[in-house]
Amino acid sequence: MLASKSLGIDFRQSEKQTLFGFLALYVLLTVIIISVFSFIYFGLQKDLMLQQKKSTLQKYSKELIEELKKLHVNFDKTQIYPRSDKFDSAIFDNEKKLIFSTTQSKLRLDKILYLEDGVIHLVNIPESYYLGARYIIVKIIDDEVWLEQTKKKITVFVVITFLFMLGIGYILLRLFLKPMRDAITLLDEFIKDTTHELNTPVSTIVANIEMIDKSSLDEKLLKKINRIDIGAKTVSNIYQDLTYLTLGNEIISNNEDIHVEQLVLERVEYFTSLALAKKIKISTNIIEKTFLHVDKFKISKLLDNLLSNAIKYNKVGGEIIVNVDKRVFSVEDSGIGIAKDDISKIKERYKRFNKSSGGFGIGLSIVSSIAKEYNLNIDITSKENIGTKVSVSW
């Protein structure tokens, strides 16, 4: 099935933006979920390690209490608090005041078993107050073997889970976008078929109207013919826009040296009847002759859209000035203008800022795409209720 170069291109860009937006949000949520599970797993592993070390610390604590008991009985002879090379210890009284300690670090009594600064602490309460001791703390250095193993497991879990969730998210997004993609493809095919069917009747109407000798017609019939001419040219312009949007990337460019001033005069003459319908005066100002090495159809399409927009968004009885100078031409109107904040967005396809003036919002998008192909510079200056000037330079 052929993919349209009009809606198809826009849809692919929109699809890409949607894809990245969804994946960014999906990745953020995935990271949060993985982080929560990793944190929980880390906590469980830490608690498991502490429980495994608890028996060792309880054994050391029991040894310390036994030594303290002996000291309590023989205090008059020894007067040296028990200590060991296997662990550090500290003794606190009932008011949590330090009696003796083999370490300078700050100790806590609000937890029974805890890990702090790489040291495992166990707080024990003897059955008897030997030498006024109420709290016994024993502590050993954590070898951190569990920590390294936990880090490795969490890293593997994070990588595998992240890649798996990313793949699932991508598949889900593609499935969600499929109905829209199918609808866009169907719409593109419809546009292609419609524009193809419009070609012959529109071309026939325009050609036959141009062959009519209007000087021999009475005024009443001439007005009717002019209305038909305006309607046919309007439809023809829409048809050409749709054709370009549909087949733009498939149209082979036949570049040649185009005299810009001659092309401007031709296109102005073509749009004269459309301008007269709104009592708009079109004047041309050829300052200096210039030429472009481009495809005539494409540059005509660019000019047509500038002139069409200048008529469409102009005031009744307004004016359009087309200037041609060395390496630049411009179309200036006395129309409704564009808000300053909207000028940067005006080249976006289907973007319209005035709903009352018709159109599909594709004119300046076509202008922009043709200008991009030939490295032409588009400059738009506008003031609301005063007018707009679009300059094309190279």
Automatic annotation (TrEMBL):
* The reaction(s) this protein catalyses: ATP + protein L-histidine = ADP + protein N-phospho-L-histidine
Gene Ontology CC: one annotated term: plasma membrane
Which GO BP annotation is one of this protein's? cellular response to phosphate starvation
* Record bears the keyword Ligase: no
- Record has Membrane as a keyword: yes
Which of UniProt's keywords are assigned here?
Answer: Kinase, Membrane, Phosphoprotein, Transferase, Transmembrane, Transmembrane helix, Two-component regulatory system
> Which domain of life, per UniProt?
Bacteria
**InterPro entries given in the database record:** BphY/WalK/GraS-like (IPR050351), HATPase_C_sf (IPR036890), HATPase_dom (IPR003594), His_kinase_dom (IPR005467), HisK_dim/P_dom (IPR003661), HisK_dim/P_sf (IPR036097)
Citing just one GO molecular function, the answer is: phosphorelay sensor kinase activity
Which residues are listed as membrane-spanning? Answer: 20-44, 154-177
- Domain named Histidine kinase: residues: 193-394
**Could you say which EC number(s) this protein's record lists?**
2.7.13.3
PANTHER family in UniProt: PHOSPHATE REGULON SENSOR PROTEIN PHOR (PTHR45453:SF1)
Q: What is this protein called?
A: histidine kinase
Q: Which species?
A: Candidatus Sulfurimonas baltica
